[in-house]
Every structure is written in C-alpha cells, then in structure tokens.
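Try it yourself: sequence plus adenosine-5'-triphosphate, in.
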Amino acid sequence: MEGKKFSILDRIKSFKYAFEGLKFFFVNEHNGRVHFGAAFFAIGLSFYLKISNLEWIAIISVIAVVFTAEIFNSAIEKLADAVTLEINPQIKIIKDLAAGAVLVTAVLAALVGGIIFLPKLF
Ligand SMILES: Nc1ncnc2c1ncn2[C@@H]1O[C@H](COP(=O)(O)OP(=O)(O)OP(=O)(O)O)[C@@H](O)[C@H]1O
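Structure, out:
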C-alpha cells in the first residue's frame, strides 16, 4: 500500500500468503496435479539422460512458465466465478483467453522437451 512503512513482518506474511496460494493450487486444482506430474516426469528424464546445464535451464524455465500460466489461469477462473456463476459471454471470453495462454506455454514446453529429449532417446 502507498505510504505504508516497510515491515519485515509484512514481507514474511506476504511469503506465507504466496505459499498458501501454491498449496491451494497443488491440492485443489486438478490441472495443478497434472502439471506437477508432467514436471516430475521431465525432471526425472533429465536426470536419466544427463542433460547439459543449458538444457537444464531450458527445462526448468519452461516448467516454471507453464506453472505460472496455470496459476494465473486458476486465479482468473476464481475471480470470474466470484463475479458471477451465471452464463455470461464476457466471462467466457475471459476464461478462454486465460486457457489460451496456458495452451501457448504447454506447446512451448512440448517443443522444448521434444528438442532436448527426442534426439537423446532415438
Ligand atoms: N460463467 C460462464 N459463462 C460463460 N462461459 C463459461 C462460464 N464459465 C465457464 N465458461 C466456459 O467454460 C470453459 C471452462 O470453464 P471452467 O471454469 O470450467 O474452466 P476449466 O477449463 O474447466 O477449468 P478447470 O478444469 O481448471 O476447473 C471456459 O473456458 C468458458 O468457455
């Protein structure tokens, strides 16, 4: 908030709330569990195939990007549902846009994973 004094305690609380958000995502959101499984698989495969440092950076980055998009998507869905649960054409566009953003990151992750893993597997 504007003009509020800096407080270490407030910063710690912000972290606590952020972790509460992550916990909610992984426990309650089905997509969260699916992405967690996919990330676990990709990291396991990366260790197995002994990928390079640069390849690790690419894999970790796309995992983080997909999670970030999916967490924002969940937040937007929750916000939209808080506005109205009635069928609403604007809510449809808002939710479809958020889902589209997740799809873009998922395609990116699949391409990066394919480029790194496929030549090492076949
Ligand atoms: N209130 C609404 N009005 C109009 N269309 C909606 C509404 N709510 C959802 N939709 C449509 O249904 C789709 C799915 O919405 P929903 O909220 O169920 O998300 P979801 O993709 O099933 O998410 P999740 O599986 O993570 O719960 C949306 O992308 C949108 O096209």
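One thing you can check immediately is this: The radius of gyration is 18 Å.
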